[in-house]
Amino acid sequence: MPGAGYLSSVSALKIGCGYCFLCSTERAINAISAQTQNVVFIPHSKISQIISDIDVIEIGCGLSTNNTAVSLFSKVIDCAYASTPIVVDADAINILAENNIDLQYDFISKKFEKIVFTPHPKEASRLLNCSVENILENIEVCAKKITKKYNCVTVLKTHKTFICSPNGRSYTNTTGNNSMAKAGSGDVLTGMISGLIAQGMDIFEASCLGVYLHGLCGDLAKEKLTEYSVMAEDLISFIPNAIKIFLS
After folding, report:
1. Which CATH number is 205's domain given?
2. DSSP H helical segments within the chain, as ranges?
3. Fewer Cβ within 10 Å of end Cβ, the chain: N or C?
4. pTM for this one?
5. Count of domains forming the chain
6. Largest Cα–Cα distance of the chain, in whole Å?
7. In which domain, by residue range, is 24 found?
8. Are 121 and 135 in contact (CB under 8 A)?
9. Crossing angle, helix 185-198 and helix 203-225, to 10 degrees?
């Protein structure tokens, strides 16, 4: 889905990442390159040639779960250094959750040191093999279960997003509103978190700040555009304003 790739990539740049590669299929690259000239495009067949030189990997936004997507995810697991931060979102989470035992084993056995998972309740329910209702009734408990299983920082996205880390730190976010409940909002968040990590932030702190600023963008957008008319792309345009408020 090219839109997701566009939103996450541009968000990473807008929050301060200096250089963003987008690795995807030719169709997605052609679609996204027509919208922005700020991203460096790499065919997915060449990902192994660049992956050793990057500061953070973001995977899953608009990926799909077909064989090409699974192969790409598997290649990332094989080629990435265990010390490279990885932000796992959307279809990358779904691929892991679809009972792919070999891929699950490869991912966990690689013992990545800096992993962030950013599931919404449905994706979390797939990871834990439980109902969405169970996730919503036990947000903190379920987030901690994901963190324990994958040794990751978990960003469980709800109206009050909860974040927890393997060392016990946690944060409940208070910014944001219902205008953000539209497709693509999560892709913007993933890009913002990845962009902060790319600048050297601790992955837990980058996750907390990314969620806070993302929600603040939504609050600013709602004030100007009304809660009905905010789209995911609008959030990106408010990132500079949110940063100014945070720094003031």
Report:
1. 3.40.1190.20
2. 2-14, 26-33, 47-50, 67-79, 90-97, 101-109, 121-128, 132-137, 139-150, 185-198, 203-225, 232-237, 239-247
3. C
4. 0.97
5. 1
6. 49
7. 2-247
8. yes
9. 140
